[in-house]
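Q: My labmate handed me this sequence with no annotations at all. I'd like to see what the chain might look like in three dimensions before we decide whether it's worth expressing. Could you predict it?
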Amino acid sequence: MKASIIKTERLILKPLSLLHVSNNYLNWLNDPIVNEYITNSGNYTLKKLKSFLKDIENKDIYFWAIHLINDNKHIGNIKIDPINTKHGLGQYGIMMGDRSEWNKGYAKESSLAVINYCFNTLNLRKITLEVIVDNNSAYQLYKKLGFVEEGLRKDQEFHNKSYYDSCIMALFNLNFNYEN
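A: Here is what I predict for the chain of 180 residues:
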């Protein structure tokens, strides 16, 4: 695991690992509201969760568990994976699992910290993501973070018994040195 600990005012991002196995985490993965817009979710067991986290530990990726500083509560996960070092690209993903912590700005705070890490430590040129157009709260977050639309994939994701378009978005590192 490549991820380093990142601290913000209210959060601490820790490398996601087997230490994060819990019934709460398992419940998020099986919660249809949490996973409404996540492609591969549901039908998780503790065994499947342990296997997933063991696999994450063995990969050379940037994947963090989002914890509250005040009580160390695990409230979600955030990642940049895959990363293409040749082209300076990273793909962003986030899951805010603990619904009791929604709408408190934690997704934005953790995202800004990871974006800063990607641009200033990893020296990435560009971060991309893909979001179902029906997921308005996520789309609005990404716009606030500075992501811009790059394209639309028609009928890309099956959601609520229908196919929905997904929007490809990107954020560029304005300080990236193109001469390197």
